[in-house]
Amino acid sequence: MSFSSSHLYFDDLEVGNEWTSGGRTVTEADIVNFAGFSGDFNPIHIDHEFAKTTPFRRPIAHGFAVFCMASGLGIFAPPVRTMAMLRVNQWNFQQAVFAGDTIRSLTRVKEKTVRGRGRRGEIVWYRAVVNQDGKVVQDGEVVTLVECRPPVREAALTAPDAAAAAPPSSNGSA
């Protein structure tokens, strides 16, 4: 994926800005596939008979699978020029997620700090994963490094139409 003109720079973000992603319905295939690539075959996730003996009464999605899905949902809510994820703070797993549940990612800018001599900034995001009933199933802070808007001079030199906007040559030829 490359950045487009709709992707926000660090400078475009203000503390308090909020976004809500589209929804994603968790499937049994998602749960089984996550077990396969993570190696987490805990029976609470994949064994229907075992799950019937638990308070949940059916298999639950892996907490980190839900975190990853929410991260993917957050890519476009908002679309940001993210350079790296730096850390996750105080992440809370509050409710189980089941196959058939639809989740959304609610994201809010909590803090901003300029880094890298103004070339990038650190954003602390509050993120909540909410199910179809509006219940928060996970929440916490995600900290990312976001590209700052280039200085005007640098932006002008790198703009695709910079050559077209250059003054005509003064060598006398037309």
Automatic annotation (TrEMBL):
<dbReference type="InterPro" id="IPR029069">
    <property type="entry name" value="HotDog_dom_sf"/>
</dbReference>
<protein>
    <recommendedName>
        <fullName>MaoC-like domain-containing protein</fullName>
    </recommendedName>
</protein>
<dbReference type="InterPro" id="IPR052342">
    <property type="entry name" value="MCH/BMMD"/>
</dbReference>
<dbReference type="InterPro" id="IPR002539">
    <property type="entry name" value="MaoC-like_dom"/>
</dbReference>
<feature type="domain" description="MaoC-like">
    <location>
        <begin position="23"/>
        <end position="117"/>
    </location>
</feature>
<dbReference type="Pfam" id="PF01575">
    <property type="entry name" value="MaoC_dehydratas"/>
</dbReference>
